[in-house]
Amino acid sequence: MIDLRPVGYVIGLLVACLGATMVVPMVIDLIHQNGHWRIFLNAGALTVMTGSVLSLACANANTGRLSLQQIFLLTTSVWAILPAFGAIPFLFGPIDARPTDAFFEAMSGFTTTGSTVFAGLDDFPEGILLWRSMLQWFGGIGIIIVAMVFMPELRVGGMQIFRSEAFDTMGKILPRAAEIASQISWIYVVLTLACFLSYLSLGMTSFEAINHALTTISTGGFSTTDMSFGAFQGAPEYVAAGFMILASLPFVRYIQLVAGTAQPILRDAQVRAYLGVILTVALALSLFQVVYDARGIEESFREAVFNVTSIISGTGYASVDYQAWGSFAMVAFFLVGLIGGCAGSTCCSVKIFRYQILMSAIWSQVRRIHAPHGVFAPRFDDQRVSDDVLSSVMAFFVLFVVSLGVLSVALGMTGLDMVTALSGAATAIGNIGPGLGPVIGPSGYFGPLNDGAKWLCIAGMLVGRLELMAVYVIFTVRFWRA
Question: What whole-number distance in Å separates Cα of residue 310 and Cα of residue 349?
Answer without folding.
Answer: 13
